[in-house]
Amino acid sequence: MAPQDKYIVIGGHRHRYVESGRQGPPMLLIHGISSSLDFYGPSIPLLARSFRVLAMDLLGFGGSDKPKGKAYSLQLYADLIREFLEKTDAVAGGTVYATGHSMGGKYLLATALLHPGTFDKLVLSNTDGFISLPSWARGLSLPGVRHILKPIVTRPKIAEKMLAAAIHRPDNIAPETYRRILDIAMDDGAFETVMGLNRNLLNLDLKRAGLRARLHELKIPTLIIWGDRDRYMSPKIAQVVKREIPCSKLVIIRDCGHSPMLEHPGEFSSAITEFILSEPQQENELCS
Questions:
Q1: Is residue 1, in this structure, part of any structural domain at all?
Q2: Residue 162 located in a structural domain
Q3: What is the pLDDT of residues 168-209, one digit of tens each?
Q4: 3-state helix vs strand vs coil in the chain, percent to 5
Q5: Is the dihedral of CA 169, 172, 174, 180 positive or negative?
Q6: How many independent structural domains does the chain possess?
Q7: What tens digit of pLDDT does each residue of 102-155 get?
Q8: String of b and e for 9-24 (b: at least 16 CB within 10 Å)?
Q9: How far is residue 138's CA from residue 179's CA, in Å, rounded to a whole number?
């Protein structure tokens, strides 16, 4: 049975989240852009065998509030993630792990740098933060352009094409799960959030915000997971991420696109569990 939706107020806004598995240490799951915690749906029960899984919808996405005119920034999302962990008592035990996909990986890196000591280990799947969007991308959020784009990108056929680019093996995904994430991709409110992210691009870029230059400060073991057929974030970027993040290990999942948690949930979850629960000696080897 899928975990039931819960709601919590953080940063003055209502956020949707789910919780599954209470016997192990906390594992926070953060999704990417134009998606929701539902992207982790097939992986949650597998991870819940070893962890207390907490998956949340980021502000502006899924079932969380989508405030208009919000000044989105890395600091904002880092603060919301930290507050969420505090209000769900995830930090009470002193050990917290986290997995972030695409945009969510960038937000976890920001949280680790802006709130040192929050995480004991990180997992970054096909993470954003290592390519810089041109400044003109902010022009997409101008009122005239936005009104033209909105009815186009939220149409079912266009949304299907965009989703297909993120998934190499759609046949690996259950039809009901695919339908759910497609509906999320067509959400009007999430589209407006993406436009809001574009308007605040300078405050959401790791490099421009001064955080990419600080990645060397991270001394926590980090697992980098990437699909070898990712058409959104080239697998070549995975090598850049590994080079810039200390104490990191790279795992490439074969025959997989941008969303390993959907396409290969078993391999994805096993890689995470093995890494998180590995012996201290292996951790020392990563950071040596």
A1: no
A2: yes
A3: 988 888 888 888 888 887 788 888 898 889 888 889 999 999
A4: 45, 15, 40
A5: negative
A6: 1
A7: 999 999 999 999 999 999 999 999 999 998 765 544 444 445 444 434 444 454
A8: ebbeeebbbbbbbeeb
A9: 30
Tokens of 217: 């400060």
Q: What are phi and psi of 163, to 5 degrees?
A: -70, -35
pLDDT score of 36: 94
More confidently predicted of 38 and 134:
38
**Radius of gyration of the chain measured on its C-alpha atoms:** 18
Q: How far apart are CA 175 and CA 169, in angstroms?
A: 12
Q: What DSSP assignment string belongs to 147-211?
A: HHHHHHHTSHHHHHHHHHHH-S-GGGS-HHHHHHHHHHHT-HHHHHHHHHHHHTGGGT-TTTTT-
State the CB neighbour count (10 A cutoff) for residue 102: 26
Report the C-alpha gap between 48 and 22 in whole angstroms: 8
Q: Tell me the backbone φ, ψ of residue 10, rounded to 5 degrees.
A: -135, 140
The CATH number given to whatever domain includes residue 48 is 3.40.50.1820
CA distance 45 to 212: 33
CA 37 and chain centroid, separation: 9
Quote the tokens at residue 104: 């969510």
Structure tokens at 75: 């600091």
What pTM does this model have?
A: 0.90
Domain assignment of residue 105, yes or no: yes
**Could you tell me if residue 149 is inside a domain?**
yes
From the list 223, 222, 228, the residue with the least C-alpha distance to 253 is 228
- At how many degrees (to 10) do helices 156-166 and 175-185 cross? 110
Question: What secondary structure letter does DSSP report for 275?
Answer: H
Alpha-carbon separation of residue 266 from 40, 55, 111, 228 (angstroms): 12, 18, 27, 16
Domain encompassing residue 279: 6-287
